[in-house]
Design a protein that fits this description.
257 residues; alpha+beta; Uridine Diphospho-n-acetylenolpyruvylglucosamine Reductase, domain 2; Uridine Diphospho-n-acetylenolpyruvylglucosamine Reductase, domain 3; 3 domains; five-stranded antiparallel β-sheet; four-stranded mixed β-sheet; 6 helices; 18 strands; 23% helix; globular
């Protein structure tokens, strides 16, 4: 089965072609040359992407069993947030302000500040079965997972923290409202990508309708009808300027396919 996806509407930056995406109905190993997409919240999709696949609705679920939470890889962050708030579960407050599907969030070790999804992860389920967190390499916005994430299991602690949610809400209030995949680059050790981009004169800089936001320099935004080429040219110009001036090679946080 396939699903027709118009990335100019489906992706958070509203850029990309309309293509057929294969639906994965049961656990299987990743296919060579195929790229797995989730909610396309951190993707920049070219006009000629590789074969694409996504988890079907069969992997959109959330179950509370004793002291563990079982979440399907296709489950959206908003649904997870609503569930944990209703059931008074803590440590997931940041998902109220962080878009994505569970598989992508785990793959990128997503989070806000010190609250990362791996903090309370127990194990993930891939095509080969369950893998405990201790056997996975992970760090800041990074994991070494090379399989499809069909499910993740988390520890449960009572006590949804409304104050922490308020903090994350204030943090997000200072971010742009234009279509965006979020942060363009990972923060280099001991510094901030936004500061470096601003320092080389690219805060607010645009190519076509792709720009670095006037509000937050590390946010790639679509001001109207940005194309993939516009966005990629902008990103590469920032990397070039930062490398030339500071000797820092910015690493992409947005995934380019």
């Amino acid at each position: 089965m396939t699903r027709t996806v118009d990335f100019s509407q489906y992706s958070s930056i509203k850029i990309g072609p309309t293509v057929e995406v294969r639906l994965i109905e049961k656990p299987e190993p990743p296919r060579a040359g195929e790229f797995i997409i989730g909610g396309a919240n951190n993707l920049l999709v070219s006009d000629t992407p590789p074969p694409l696949a996504m988890l079907s609705k069969k992997f959109d679920y959330i179950r509370l069993e004793g002291k563990y939470l079982y979440i399907g890889g296709a489950t959206k962050s908003g649904r997870i947030f609503s569930f944990v708030k209703k059931h008074n579960i803590k440590n997931f407050e940041y998902l109220g302000k962080l878009p994505g599907t569970l598989g992508g969030l785990v793959f990128m070790n997503a989070g806000m500040k010190a609250d990362e999804i791996f903090n309370h992860l127990v194990k993930i389920k891939t095509s080969g079965g369950y893998i405990p967190k201790e056997e996975i390499g992970y760090g800041y916005r990074f994991t070494d997972i090379d399989d499809i994430i069909y499910e993740a299991v988390f520890e449960v602690e009572e006590g949804f923290d409304a104050q922490k949610l308020a903090l994350f809400t204030r943090m997000r209030a200072n971010q742009p409202k234009d279509p965006s995949p979020g942060s363009a680059f990972k923060n280099p050790p001991g510094d901030y990508a936004g500061r470096l981009i601003d320092a080389v004169g690219m805060k607010g800089y645009r190519i076509g309708d792709a720009a670095f936001s006037e509000i937050h320099a590390n946010f790639l935004v679509n001001l109207g009808k940005a194309t993939f080429d516009d966005a990629l040219s902008l990103l590469e110009e920032a990397r070039k300027r930062v490398l030339e001036r500071f000797g820092v090679q910015l690493e992409y946080e947005v995934r380019i396919i």
